[in-house]
Amino acid sequence: MKKTLFDKIWDAHVVDSIEKGPQVLYIDKHLIHEVTSPQAFNELKERGIPIFRPDQIVATADHNTPTIDQHLPVKDALSRNQLEQLSKNCKENGITLYELGHQYNGIVHVMAPELGITQPGMTMVCGDSHTSTHGAFGTIAFGIGTSQVAQVFASQCLLLKKPKSLRVTVNGTLKKGVLPKDVILYIISQIGTNAGTGYFCEYAGEVFENMSMEGRMTVCNMSIEMGARGGMIAPDETTFEYIKGRKFAPQGEDFDKKVAEWKTLPTDEGAIFDKEYTFDAADIAPMVTYGTNPGMGIKITENIPEQESVSFQKSLEYMDFKAGESLINKPINYVFIGSCTNSRIEDFRVAANFIKGKQKAANVTAWLVPGSKQVEAQIVEEGLKDIFENAGFQLRQPGCSACLAMNDDKIPKGEYCVSTSNRNFEGRQGQGARTILASPLVAAATAVEGKIIDITKHLN
Ligand code: SF4
Q1: Which of 218, 340, 367 to mutate to test ligand 1, by most ligand atoms within 8 A of the CB atom?
Q2: What is the per-residue pLDDT across 172-181, written as a single tens digit (0 to 9) for each?
């Protein structure tokens, strides 16, 4: 029987099945952070259940961490308590923790792939929706709730119903200035935020085959925004090359054996998907969102569409936009380049390449927040820090930052922020904040110009 990439990995991890019911799935790697793990640790403690496989868990601190003066004690009491609790829980249970300040600390979906923890063919979970990021490696990776975190702690397994399969194929060549973020914003704008509900999505076609691992992570990261349980891309030479030599990657002969195994994972020719969408790369352009869900996106040169629904009207009201208007020349006071969607070295290279030799607009507050300590170090090593600082930008320390504004990095009420993060929900970046999702290139250009510009005219 022809199998999809998803089927091959799923079926290899089924421990038990209930006839016509859910299945018990073995989980290879469990990632945890300070926000969604404390209740699960408490539950196990109260019930006297030990953590089953602490060696398969990796912890980091990211959601609540400050992005300046990380060497000082954390001022905010709630954040400080959560970080201390995480350290205590990890110590008591023998779990590896890359805490604040550690050279491997960072956003969970940035640091795990860069350490080689994420590998093809695995099942991975984390108490965070954007765990789908790891699917870029040909991995079944998805976010879980707190009670499921406890379930995995206790058994290294999850009771799950197998999702249906969806494939999104994009063939052709992307135009200049069109980045992976534009690809995924375009897909979601076309199929909507519910198209993936109940499905696990595979991205296929030339566009993804030619994409870097950083770009694939950006795409898979936002699978959840079209309602899918997760997204994945078949592992190939680009994947193997990225993993090779990383800290937790298999080494020497073991690596070669693994590669041989990983090469068997791609979807069999002729395998059937429950649902398919196909797009042409030539139709994709730099994108921006104008509303309060990631599906409300347009090409940067398009005007906001007209729609009658109450939710659409409410969304435009929140954003203070009008149907039919263009976002080009909209003055913007905040720019955020960061989050697990776009805080990898490639994202900062794109931004630096545009910014080099220019100056940040005086009206703009621009936060550049690397996804990990390793990305931060690479920014310095490659001389990008100098480019940013000479242009008047401030490079901050790693963390989730203004993606969800759990720390001090909040966008003030009523202000617009062109953001490389993944969610533009009401209040996501601070109470009353107005988020416009875009690529790092569009964000960098906005910071320089102080307004949204048609980036396609500025690329030469
Ligand atoms: S950067 Fe944002 S989306 Fe990513 S893990 Fe942190 S809070 Fe979640």
Answers
A1: 340
A2: 999 999 999 9
